[in-house]
Design goal:
Layout (H helix, E strand, L loop, with lengths): L2 H23 L15 E2 L8 H4 L7 H18 L13 E6 L5 E10 L4 H14 L15 E5 L3
Length: 154
């Protein structure tokens, strides 16, 4: 892929990501049925955690997620070093477990759904650890971020 095509591809991807973030922030959930859960946040499934943990984790409200998920994604992107070559797979879904204050718990970042490229998946995991602590709310609003799934696109 030539430099010009790469620039245009990256430019369009950034514009699309920004547009989706704005739509999410301003409550346009009804305009994108079925797409927004893929934008960046989902509650972890019971199969991705022990049964005991599934009873303690709660899904965040839309308001809390719309405020904090874009900040978390942006923080991770600042530390994300993409592997050589181009990425043309699916966005990986990553389960992240945090301590209060946003510190990523050691050995608690796991790929739930692979992008299809193990090197790309590992670059996402590395970026999450490198970005620790992540920006998260404090108090009761933090609880949904104790154990959550995150979708990251380049």
């Amino acid at each position: 892929m030539g430099t010009g095509k790469l620039f245009v591809t990256v430019f369009v991807a950034v514009l699309l990501a920004n547009a989706l973030t704005v739509l999410m922030l301003f409550g346009a959930r009804g305009l994108l049925p079925g797409l927004l859960p893929d934008v960046g946040w989902s509650a972890p499934s019971a199969s991705s955690r022990d049964a005991a943990e599934s009873s303690t984790s709660t899904a965040p409200s839309e308001e809390i997620a719309s405020r904090w998920v874009p900040a978390i994604q942006e923080r991770i992107r600042q530390f994300w070093v993409h592997p050589a070559g181009t990425w043309e797979g699916n966005a990986p879904v990553v389960n992240v477990q945090l301590e209060p204050g946003g510190k990523v718990i050691t050995n608690q970042v796991q790929i739930v759904t692979s992008s299809g490229n193990p090197m790309f998946d590992q670059s996402v995991v590395n970026a999450i650890y490198d970005a620790s602590p992540l920006p998260v709310p404090s108090g009761p609003d933090f609880e949904p971020f104790r154990d959550f799934n995150l979708v990251l696109r380049p």
